[in-house]
Amino acid sequence: PPPPPDMGKVMALVKPKIAGRADMGEISKLVKAKLAGA
Length: 38
Prior knowledge:
Blueprint: H1 7-18, H2 24-37
Helix pairs in contact: 1-2
């Protein structure tokens, strides 16, 4: 399924904060789960 519409917004905010410190794949999964459950 396509990612939720807010996914891009959230990732854009999160990326600079965690760049180089966290795995983007993991973050992406967490964000998707959060948005899906929100």
